[in-house]
Predict the 3D structure of the following.
Amino acid sequence: MSQAKVTDAQIMADRSKFLKHGDVVGVTCVPFSGGQPKGGVDDGPIEMIRFGILDQMQGMGYQVELSEGMDKYRSMQPASDPPIGNMKNPRYVGMAARRVSEQVKAHCQQGRLAVTLGGDHSIAMGTLVGSSSVYDDMCVIWVDAHADINTPNSTDSGNLHGCPLSFVLGLCDKDEVPPNSPFEWIKPCIQSNHLVYIGLRDVDPAEKAILRKHGIRAFSMHDVDKYGIGQVVEMALDHVNPERNRPIHMSFDVDALDPSVAPATGTPVRGGLTFREGHYICEAVAETGCLVALDLVEVNPLLGDPESLRQTVAVGCSLVRSSLGESLL
């Protein structure tokens, strides 16, 4: 008599060190593009749903709980949103991030694995506030070509998808977040020694100074080439989670991948992670049993031809599945 197959979700639930319901995924879809100037990234989560990501999760044995009101992220855009200092669309970004934080927090409080599909990377202000409000000793693995740690004063572009970490790390001066600012609600919630990067290769001079000043560990593509992705992931985990006893929030920007792998994204940079390197990161983090929250961001369906879109959406869905413990054998 054959035994019932054990699902990937069951394996992950048994492995999980922090999730009360490790076989339940709480999905927040954030069709939002206010943190950068290129239209289309707000359609990223919609295209991933069309491609079947929710069905794919269920096929792995997960129960999927979807946050309500996805359309509100577009309707909340204010009629007027002039810059504050260098910051573009500050009110829209602040309102959207706050709503994201509430939805992610709700999933985390229920003991679900919180998966957020963006949208541009400014939404991570919200995802990190939300998850850290439940897991206060959490660490962050930031997989990206860019550091996204400019402050409102250091950013040249004013695009807030390049600034989310400065807010949650508490790096902004008082004049950058004055009283009644759209970001006044964000309190420092991540310690600098609890953050690690993988995949960096396009870092602004001001960001380099910030990383050095605060001793933030970053593994660039040089390190990936030198040590190999397996050792890089181990070193990254050893830095932020040496005993593998701390909750992990992984924030994955698809532009961490080489443009030959994920072409439909707003800020592609040559020399990125291969398909397997990106997936290995997700697989290794899943194996720790520590993952409590995942962001997958910056898929932009309007950039590139239909095949570029299909390729990028497919790899985005595949990265999510790998983070949820999809087994190769």
Residues 134 and 163 are 23 Å apart (CA to CA). The first strand starts at residue 24 and ends at 30. The radius of gyration is 18 Å. DSSP finds twelve helices and eight strands in the chain.
